[in-house]
Amino acid sequence: MSERNVEIAVIGAGIVGIACAYYLAKGRPSSRIVVIDPRAPMSLTSAASGENYRNWWPHPVMMAFTDYSIDLLEEISREYDDRIHMSRRGYALATREAKPDQLLKELQTGYGEGARRIRVHGAASSSTYIPPVSANWRDAPEGVDVLQSRALIRHHFPTFDQEVSTILHIRRAGDISGQQLGSLMLEQIRAAGGSLASARVKEIVKQHDGFVVTARGPDGEEKIRAGIVVNAAGPYIADIARMLGETLPVENIFHQKIAFIDNLGAVDRRMPFSIDLDGQAIDWTDPERQLIAEDPATAWLARQMPGGIHCRPEGGDLGKWIKLGWAYNRTPSEPRDDLPTDPNFPDIVLRGASRLNPRLKQYYGRLPRQITHYGGYYTMTKENWPLIGPMKTKHAYVAGAMSGFGTMAACATGALCAGWVLGKRLPEFAESLSLWRYDDEILLRRLRESASTGVL
Ligand SMILES: Cc1cc2nc3c(=O)[nH]c(=O)nc-3n(C[C@H](O)[C@H](O)[C@H](O)COP(=O)(O)OP(=O)(O)OC[C@H]3O[C@@H](n4cnc5c(N)ncnc54)[C@H](O)[C@@H]3O)c2cc1C
After folding, report:
1. Alpha-carbon distance 55 to 115, whole Å?
2. Which of 16, 43, 45, 54 is the best mutation target for the ligand 1 pocket, counting ligand atoms within 8 Å of the beta carbon and taking the most?
3. pTM (two decimals)
4. Which end of the chain has fewer CB atoms surrounding its CB within 10 Å, N or C?
5. Whose CA is nearest to atom 35 of ligand 1?
């Protein structure tokens, strides 16, 4: 059995583990860091990400957290000549409600002191709304535009469902290449002397000055002695915690996406990431609906479905791909390596997305053969906030529960985790995002009572 000594062992080479190692290497350049994972880096949940980012959240803590992460992404975009392909056409959240009071209240709460950045546009003629012409993040405005005139909406979003009465256009939002972000961070980790170990962690034994981590790889077992352990195992963070005798308040919920070439030009290449906030009954024909409703396994698809279905162009203005997703599953499950993708999902998501984007109906029954259908687990706490910071075991840290926001939040997560490990000054919100928040009953009660957790 081989052995090695390191200062820090990061378990998991998804975007979160890699970002932790990157900011640890930046914060203490001489430290010996190993990132342990049996899989190729970025190949599990991180490979399924839609790679979208936003600073829209129903709570100011999550907004401050993602704003911090977007600051760091912009820094990386500047430093590496936009290798991460950061775009910023925003998120267009559409509803047929003319006065979505709850939504607007959440917007005010989320933006807190930044609420003055919320611009409401009524009549089309006098509007100062700036449409998302450029994809360059440097050109995009701040804040949020609330479009409440049907004429204005029709003018700027002519392909949307004509019944849409309000659009919230979140301007600090867009997409990045998460894979490029991961690979440039890995290059920097290696340049700073860090390494990757291709092995699965099987056991962690606590010793007075650190840990002995037993990991199994292609060449057999290895013992890695580490002063500090960072648990960034994505859907398996609770398993790693159990090796330390701890439980984490997380569950895994499987979600899917599809991508295909939009040969019929149904989606405008300059469309922001568009989200239909309204629930809906899927657009089946009457005979289809009857068949679906009769089978107990599919009957749920004939009932009212939740909102949050989304669609966006992928691959830039000259690309042809589009991506569709719908996080409607609410049932937790044990994570498995053979992902439980549902062969009906492409048809379900296509019909759902066609409500906001009726031009997608052209693909009913004729989705291109070259379609990518993939999925992964949202590893979540009940309140949909992440877990970043010390575990109960001394010198052990967790960076996980990244739900549907791990790509956008990776940089802030890595920087916060490195801050905790290296004893640096942390932003005010850091404690609320750590396990310490479970000692704050008032905060927890408030979070559990709030109408929305910001899941998309
Ligand atoms: C369908 C879908 C769409 C999404 N869209 C977005 C989006 O648009 N924007 C966004 O910001 N986020 C999005 N997300 C969320 C984002 O993808 C995740 O939050 C993020 O990838 C989590 O990264 P991670 O590193 O924690 O986990 P992972 O990428 O799963 O990495 C964890 C790693 O730990 C390793 N591991 C596990 N157990 C062990 C062990 N015992 N020993 C060693 N290694 C171990 C695994 O092999 C894996 O490589 C989406 C997620 C899904 C599923």
Report:
1. 13
2. 45
3. 0.97
4. N
5. 12
